[in-house]
Amino acid sequence: MSAVVVDLPPPRPSPTLSLQSLADFAAYSRRRRREAARRRALKLLKVLLLVLLIGLAKLLVHHLGLEPIQVNPLFTSLVASTVFLLGFLLNGVLSDFKESERLPGELATGLEVLSLEIRAIPAHNPAAVVDRPLMAVAAFADALLAWLLERLSTRELLLQFHQCHAATVEAAVLLQGNATLQARLMAEMGGLLKLINRIDTIRQTSFVPLVYWLAYASTALLCTGLVFMATTTILEAIFFVFVIAFLLIFLIRLIADIDNPFGFADPNSAEDVALDVLVEAMGRLVAIRDAAQAGVRA
Q: Please, are residues 96 and 202 in contact by the beta-carbon 8 Å criterion?
């Protein structure tokens, strides 16, 4: 039986990083932080406007005497159940967010260790030339950063990963049968692929959509109940309506934002993980790549 060879299309070239482009990314990161502060203020303003409308609705309902709902233990149970549901939802998305905070550091560690392991091969085999594998690792790091910023598709990133894996295999062959060191190189590549798949899963998966629907419905029903709740003192009623509605609506908007910790391309996302540690590691990879390119030209 003849072997079937599948020709994969070459990946689209990723943006080639240089020390200057890394400096540009640092400027981009500063702009991103300023934009995040502006978006947080905008989210707060939108929530305040919505709560103000709810307060005005309460004033109108009280003025017209349309307050058929009496405060009783069932109403307080509705408040408690809504708060519990939002707490459950917040805990679920926070666990993913806290895990996502570690992923850029683990990616940076894997890339730099892989580069260092390849650069150390001539110490085991003085005749080995590892310039091209080092350049392949740097090119893969370029594609990885572009993918995190959603400038490159997952398919294109994986094609770039396959090229880096092939170059790493070539570097492993230069170890001349040292199985332990060869296994370490392959383990680093496997670890990087695992992290990529985990980030892709986090970006594509929303936390149980039915729970979101239930949280939105509970919040809407509770705010409606607050508007039509019978009160004797309108100032006291406005205070409780404002505080409870503000906390619930702002919390559910926050949960929706942090559900995707890698929303760098989302113009409405204000809470994303930091990529500074990855960019700093890539600066060192760029220096190694430039030295390798100089060696190839020489």
A: yes
Residue partners of 279: CB distance under 8 A and separation at least 6: 22, 25, 26, 29, 145
* DSSP character at residue 10: P
pTM as predicted? 0.78
Question: Are 107 and 268 spatial neighbours (Cβ–Cβ below 8 Å)?
Answer: no
Cα–Cα dist 226/249, whole Å: 14
Q: From the DSSP assignment, how many helices (H) and strands (E) are in the chain?
A: 9, 0
| For the chain, domain boundaries | 19-297
The alpha carbon dihedral of 258, 260, 263, 268 has a sign of negative
Q: Residue 253 is which amino acid?
A: R
CA atoms 90, 212, 40, 198: torsion sign: positive
Long-range contact pairs involving 139-144 (C-beta distance under 8 Å, separation at least 24) = 139/14, 139/16, 139/163, 139/164, 139/289, 140/111, 140/164, 141/17, 141/111, 141/281, 141/282, 141/285, 142/14, 142/15, 142/16, 142/17, 142/282, 143/11, 143/14, 144/107, 144/111, 144/196, 144/278
* Euclidean distance between CA atoms 133 and 292, whole angstroms: 9
Backbone angles phi, psi at 52, to 5 degrees: -60, -40
pLDDT in tens, the chain (298 residues): 333 333 333 434 444 444 445 556 666 667 777 777 888 888 889 999 999 999 999 999 988 888 888 877 887 888 888 888 888 888 888 888 988 999 999 999 999 999 989 988 888 888 888 888 888 998 898 889 889 888 889 999 999 999 999 999 999 998 887 888 889 999 999 999 999 999 999 888 877 788 888 888 989 988 998 898 887 788 888 888 899 999 999 999 889 888 888 888 777 788 888 888 888 888 888 777 676 666 555 5
User: CA angle 203-204-207, nearest 5°?
Assistant: 90
**Amino acid, res. 114:** L
